[in-house]
Amino acid sequence: MYMFIFAVPTGSEAVSFMSEPPSLDKMKKKSILVIRARSKAECGPLTDDNIEREVIFMEVDRRILDGLHAVCNDVFMPVLGNPLNMIGWSDLVSKDLMDKFHVFLAYTCVTLGHAHGRTVLPPPPTDVTSSEKTSSKDKAQLLEQAIVHWTKQIKAVLRLDPETALKNGKDPGPSTEVEFWKGKSENLEAICEQLGYERIRKVLKFLEQNKSTYTGPFSKLQKEVQTASAEANENYTYLQTLDDLFTQLTDPAKGPNDVAELFVPIMHTTLLIWTYSQHYNTPSRLVVLIREICNAIIAQCRNHISAEEIFGYIQGGEPQSAHNKLTVALDVCSRFKEAYFEYKARAKNQWKITTNALFVRLDAFSERCQDIMHLTSTIIQFNKLQKIEIGNTKGKTLTATVLSIFEQFSEAVTEFMTVKYDIMDIEQR
To answer: Which one, 126, 169, 301, 351, has least CB within 10 Å?
Structure first.
């Protein structure tokens, strides 16, 4: 059985020993990782003589991937690539080992970039491409493989779209839109910077000299990156003007009326962006932004009145309070649609977008509020039955009948309140 232990400093003098990898919040300083290389069945018990061979000690910190890449690239690569260390190896074995190690290094480089939210284009193996033993044909093949890998990475970034989160059913708020364009802008800028590196220019120059068919498509891809980078930069620049309004819109401390006061400034700024932006003025962009704003409004309304509160008011004999809060939530939804249609008119019929595409969730939430309001209204009316007393000769019998109807209705309401899902969640049916 293989074993490893983490020694994690927890104070000025205290150290904790863990048999599982610690979370990042616990790794504030460097930790020591102790690994037993082979199991007890393979090497027997540890002794003074074999502990140096059987136990590995290494430092681990929060930047584990950075350390792994640095060690592999600066230590293991020169050692493995040293011809003196390959004495007795066949060419096939040494080539296979180095090829696999280069692939591992490339994936480590890419993963490291993902950890930092960036796309890193892994460099081709310098020890092979610069070697005089490698033929021009083999070098070209290696460099073409690198270009294929870069092309896949770059196209994956170019395909990123803010609508993806909506399609995945995550119901993001409008701040996600700002963060998306910020991230894409920075990522594309980083790719543009890497494409200008000397090592990549040398790769393209070498392939061009060897008449590779990969250089033409990759040159076109470089132009696409520059165009997409300019678009992402502009979109982020314009959307930043909405950032403060979106922060207020999603602030849990804001009340419904405070939120509703933001609708006109948000739509006014959106119309200005549409008017002056060269890229953020298409129906698809506007659809995503409005739907994300609707998601934020729904979240704020659910903060204002939750299912627990509604049931609490009903159980406490105050269905009118629940009804009033639902009325406020419904009013907030209506006010946003009014603000949208007002600025749609000001856009001089440029916002040619189907209303259903924009307000599908907001309308569904409004309908849910209306359904629950109907329930509370019915409860308010039925609650009057418990106070009714009918006179005349048949009054006692009729009063008992009325009370029986009220009790049956109360039992139905009590049963309804045992539902296992959140009645304010429109995803629940």
So the answer is: 169
89: left (phi over 0), alpha (psi -120 to 50) or beta: beta
Residue 150 and residue 232 share a domain: yes
Q: Indicate whether 102 and 166 sit together in one domain.
A: no
Overall number of domains in the chain: 4
3-state class (DSSP) for residue 5: strand
Question: pLDDT (tens digit, 9 = 90+) per residue, 280-330?
Answer: 999 999 999 999 999 999 999 999 988 899 988 888 889 999 999 999 999
Quickly state the pLDDT bin for 267 (edges 50, 70, 90). Answer: very high
In whole angstroms, give the CA distance from residue 4 to residue 18.
Answer: 9
377 within domain boundaries? yes
Please report, to the nearest 10 degrees, the dihedral formed by the alpha carbons of residues 54, 60, 63, 67 taken in order.
Answer: -40
286 and 319 both lie in a single domain = yes
With pLDDT > 70 as the criterion, what percentage of the chain qualifies? 94
Nearest C-alpha neighbor of 336 from the set 245, 406, 275? 245
Residues 24 and 56 in one domain: yes
Assess whether pLDDT exceeds 70 at residue 176: yes
Q: Where are the alpha helices (DSSP H) in 30-90?
A: 40-43, 51-54, 64-71, 77-81
Residue 76 sits in which domain range?
63-116
How many DSSP H helices and E strands does the chain contain?
A: 18, 4
DSSP 117-172: T----PPP-HHHHT-TTS-HHHHHHHHHHHHHHHHHHHHHHHT--THHHHHTT---
